[in-house]
Amino acid sequence: MFRADHTGLCATQWMPMTLADNIARVQQQIADACRRAGRAPESVMLMAVSKTHSAEAILEAAAAGIRLFGENRVQEFAGKRDALAAAGLFAGSDPARFHCIGPLQSNKVNRATEIFDAVDTVDSLRLAQRLDQAAAAQDKTLAVHLEIKTSPEAAKHGIAPDSTDLAALLEQLPDMRHLRVCGLMTVPPFAANPEEARPYFRRLRELRNSLAAQYPRVSLKELSMGMSHDFPVAIEEGATVVRVGTAIFGARPPVARG
């Protein structure tokens, strides 16, 4: 992305937009979507999805005011965390918070519980139980979202909305004293037209409302939905957390394998 130089130099000069510029643009889009929906901009949290991006990029985003980040892989975030801690990102009265927003393997539960503030992809009773046990062993309370599969796509993760697995999980969550349930999250199928995601966002909101009435002991206030290409639509449908990566950090660099 580029912008015109209005400093009095040649009008044909251009300069690259910074992360701060990108963040400001996204925040304006959030405010615009909230206005259309009759909501306060403060009702939507912006999560910067920093997966595959460097610790330096995270620090730049933090300097521009971002305090909520999403990472996909336990090992990748663990490799950045020391540099972020050394820079003071977790200190002070307003520390940065990092959520695990990728599928979580059972052998990574202990480490994820240790380094993340929240796991947003709880998709089974078994995973919730393991997270609760790990959090208890570490004497902490872990925030979680329940990932709901609103799409028929086989590649999408989550619990089916009408499954007995979801009912069993919601019935037992109040007894998991080291988990703090925040709400639901979903990932709709990608479509070039953001409007095509609207039915999936609406379905999650309607499901949340129904489940909140059925399971009053479980807090389901938050709806984490919407990414770089469709988050304004998600906000119009009730999103309280939007997960924005590319629109802030640019295209993701290739992930090293092996």
Describe how the helices and strands are arranged.
Elements: E1 2-4, E2 14-16, H1 19-37, E3 45-49, H2 55-63, E4 68-71, H3 74-86, E5 97-100, H4 109-115, E6 118-122, H5 125-137, E7 142-147, H6 164-172, E8 179-185, H7 198-214, E9 222-224, H8 231-236, E10 241-244, H9 246-249
Parallel strand pairs: 3-4, 3-10, 4-5, 5-6, 6-7, 7-8, 8-9
Antiparallel strand pairs: 1-2
Can you describe this structure?
The protein has helices at residues 19-37, 55-63, 74-86, 109-115, 125-137, 164-172, 198-214, 231-236, 246-249; strands at residues 2-4, 14-16, 45-49, 68-71, 97-100, 118-122, 142-147, 179-185, 222-224, 241-244. It has 258 residues and is α/β, with parallel strands linked by helices. The protein has a single domain (16-249), classed as TIM Barrel (Alpha-Beta Barrel). An 8-stranded parallel beta sheet has the order 9-8-7-6-5-4-3-10. Strands 1-2 form a two-stranded antiparallel sheet. Strand 4, helix 3 and strand 5 form a beta-alpha-beta unit. It is globular.
By CATH reckoning, the class would read: Alpha Beta
Which residue ranges are poorly predicted, with pLDDT under 50 across at least 5 consecutive positions?
1-14
What general outline do the C-alpha atoms trace? globular
H/I helix tally? 9
What name does CATH use for the topology?
Answer: TIM Barrel
| Percent of sequence in beta strands | 15-25%
Largest sheet: 8 strands, parallel
Q: How many independent structural domains?
A: 1
* Portion of residues within helices: 25-40%
